[in-house]
Amino acid sequence: MYLARGNHENKNMNKIYGFEGEVHSKLNETFVELFSDVICCLPLAHLNLLVGSDSIMVAITWILSLMLNNPQVLKKAQDELENKIGRNRQVEESDIKDLVYLQAIVKESLRLSSPSGVIFPRAAMKDCTLSTGYHIPTGTKLMINIWKIMHDENLWPDPYSFQPERFLCSSHKDIDVRGQHYKLLPFGSGRHSCPGISLSLNVMHLILAALLHSFEITTPSNEPVDVTKSNGLTNMKATPLEVLLVPRLNCIL
Ligand code: HEM
Fold it and tell me: Transmembrane stretches, by residue range (predicted)?
């Protein structure tokens, strides 16, 4: 069953990211067009409702793995918790807005190791020609390779390194993951973007903050975490993550 949606008027089709991975300069126009004038496969949306909670688990596993492999980031996050909250009480939801570095860690992890790599198939509702020269006839099924966009060195300097700091510099500090900035789309964009964005971000920030605040976290062997990815629809870690937790708060939990 297909669901038609949108009737957006946009004459400026520019370049597109596809599996060929063309570099493009005008992401905005392209995505406004693609994400508005499309046909969506409804059963896939239902499937995603089931895997939504899985995505949170996958995302948190990656965030922890990336931090364990970058201990300076882990320390900086714990220092921020120390400064903003101290050791005599637990983290509360209302603290999250002050944890700017933690928020940057979540963004950078979703960029580097997003649980989804490709956005569900959509189909163009009208003919268009992209600036790369591709002609897309009405009805052509399109898959957006968000992984490629989020690892493009023209958009992200040193794209494979884990640098939460990139979201603190003046040019990137306002970039968020809610589908308005087309170079960072872990939750997709447009009318069928992920409805679980707010839930996921709240849960991820709170779990992460509580974990980092309450425990010293290390790996049992002190070896770097294996970051091999598994195959499949969701980008899961191929091997389980094992951590050692040691309480670090003064208060009794
Ligand atoms: C870190 C967590 C999550 C990530 C990275 C994620 C990512 C995504 C992405 C990339 C899409 C496709 C968007 C598009 O086509 O433009 C999507 C769709 C969807 N997600 Fe999530 N998701 C997450 C959590 C959740 C949760 C917790 C729920 C439910 C409670 C959920 C429910 C859905 C549903 C129902 C859709 C289909 C929306 C539609 O087609 O209208 N997701 N998600």
Answer: none
